[in-house]
Amino acid sequence: MKIVDTYFRLRSGKGKSGWLMLPVLLLMVVGVYSLVHATGGIKYVYSHSMYIPVMLAGLCYGWSGGILIAVIAGIALGPLMPIEVVTGEPQKAANWLFRTGFFLFVGVLSGIASNAALAQVRKLQWMTRHDPATGLPNLTALLDALGAGDANPSGFARRALAVMSIRNAPELRTVFGVAVVEENMTQLAGRALGSLPPGARVFRVSSEQLAVLFEDPEGASADTLARVGAAFQLPFLYREVPLHLDVLVGYVVLADAGVAPQDYLRRAQSATFHAFETGSEIAHYQVQLHDRTRDSLAILSGLRIALERRELLLHYQPKVCLRTGTVRGVEALMRWNHRERGLIGPAVFIERAEQSTLIHALTAFALETALGQALQWQAQGIDLPVAVNISSRNLAHPDFARRILDTLARCGAAPRLLELEVTESSLMLDVARTTAELQLLARQGVRVAIDDFGTGYSSLAYVQRLPVSHLKIDRSFVSDLMSSPDSQHIVETVVSLARKIGLQTIAEGVEDAATYERLQSLGCDMAQGFYLARPMPADALPAWLEAFDSKISRIPA
Ligand code: C2E
Ligand code: CA
Ligand code: CA
Questions:
Q1: Is 125 part of any domain?
Q2: Higher-confidence residue: 148 or 134?
Q3: CA of 71 to the centre of ligand 2 (A)
Q4: Which of 125, 137, 322, 425 is the most buried (most CB within 10 A)?
Q5: Residue 120 above 60 pLDDT?
Q6: Do residues 370 and 470 share a domain?
Q7: Could you report the per-residue pLDDT of 92-110, keeping only the tens digit for each?
């Protein structure tokens, strides 16, 4: 393979080696001429040796080189060479012209073959370092460029790398087919090149990411990046349809020569992830962010394993009727019994799970466990419905209602044993569809509560049309009920309007007797909170219920 490599390097004419062969070829022509002359003239067979330099010339310099040496060889073995050296008899012109014609034929043919092979090799070489769709240099080329700076540490410190990621590429592909991203990438590359300072190079590093290498970090100033960002905000055209690309930009200054090129790329990529998390378009890489991203990824993969290892569990928090003091149900709240970190609350992991499809598995686990527990309590004479929290991503699943009904059937639980808690904002995402899904469940007897009510924008008039039966007044209004007249007013209004439209109200986050009593006087239906009970393991509930029965007689009705 070395010979082949050397040959193509020679053919590419890189460096002085390109010219090295010309004198060698001429020497060979002279050598053959001398051989033919010394062996008595053209009459004898040695003239055929001339095909060797002619063919080599074609191989080394293409068809033009082949022609040049063929002509020189034709003349050397033509007018300059007698038929027989002893007699000095010259050749007939037709003879040597005919021979020269053969030389030309062989020179051109080997030249064409060698040109074709060279073109093919060049194409392969180009393809290993470029993206065929956009013509931009690819990941390999970027890593080489980053590594090249490494060799020159002072140059390295003056560079910056930005990564631009099309966040909605998967959606676009689903709707318009795979070609759409390729087309958008080409347009994106064009816009990037048009809005960047000189010296910035654009690379395509993955199916939906471009990278820009700035040779001078001044070039990667917030201004430039904002300008590039603005260029991406304009719609992109695909088959005459204007499309919006969610382009996120993450960047990092290459200040530390000890960092491997891949790590710099990863840092810029993790900054795009941070941009996404914070809802901004541009984010600068910071070590803490990187750690957070890594943490959150660790949480995600850890959760998956936790689910398999049965490290997830539910705690239950009672809801008490404010009028009678009886317990009317419990809310299931997820916990993770982590091997090293102990019991972890959902605040740490639910949000991260909601950004991935893992939330479906978590909700399925919560539904099955909660229903299984409700049935077990039922067998012990405790008849309480359980409320399970549902994420917007669950609601958006096309089979949402069907899956819940299937779970109920599989567990052999009556639908009235189950309540779903959905937040206002997730209901508003696709109102028509979620209404239809929830209606299907409501018709079967599953109750639905709007969680964190008051934090969204829905009006009560609007809620009236949704198939929900309870409103859970958000903790923020309940916790300062005693101190804020505004909160009191809001709770009062929600309670009275809810009653008018036939909905029950639950106040969450009740932490003291005063709030409990105020809620009673405001006519709220139920209360839930630390004052009554903290969320507890399932097996603690029977004892709590018993103790609560005797305590409740002391709470004024
Ligand atoms: P949430 O649905 O609003 O649940 C009520 C949260 O308030 C619970 O926190 C509960 O422990 C806490 N809480 C209850 N009473 C009081 C009180 O008197 N004072 C205070 N300060 N807090 C009180 P937790 O268990 O940490 O859950 C947090 C959130 O995580 C939940 O908020 C819910 O949105 C989510 N979550 C919990 N379990 C699940 C689950 O299984 N699936 C889904 N999708 N989300 C869940
Ligand atoms: Ca809840
Ligand atoms: Ca809540």
A1: yes
A2: 134
A3: 92
A4: 322
A5: yes
A6: yes
A7: 999 999 999 999 999 999 9
